[in-house]
Amino acid sequence: MTREELATASDLLESAAADTGDADASDRLADLAGQLERLSTADRGPDHGRLARIQSALNDLGSGDGADVADAIDEADAAINEYRSDLEGV
């Protein structure tokens, strides 16, 4: 079962990683994309805490680059929020 919102967020972050001029940000974005890709196909979906940590990292990365990268990060964050809206709990 694929969690489409998380797969979409992963794709967006891969794009942002390729577009950024900052090597450290690119590595972090690629790592977050990989995490979301694995979570999108895992047997069990992630909980709110795991996704909140990913979104916190995205928030840190979203302010230091160009508009295209920031837009992709914002769209990825929105896709994660959409997924989280159906999760039980917090």
Present the secondary structure layout.
Elements: H1 4-19, H2 23-41, H3 48-61, H4 67-84
Helix pairs in contact: 1-2, 1-4, 2-3, 3-4
Describe the structure.
It is a single chain. By secondary structure, the protein is mostly helical. It has one domain. It is built from four helices and no strands. Helix 1 (4-19) runs antiparallel to helix 2 and helix 1 packs antiparallel against helix 4. The relative contact order is 0.22.
Descriptive tags:
single chain, 90 residues, mainly alpha, 4 helices, globular
* Number of extended strands: 0
Oligomer: single chain
Biggest β-sheet strands, sense, barrel:
none
Overall morphology: globular
Pfam family, one: DUF7553
Task: Give a quick rundown of the structure.
With 90 residues, this protein is mostly helical.
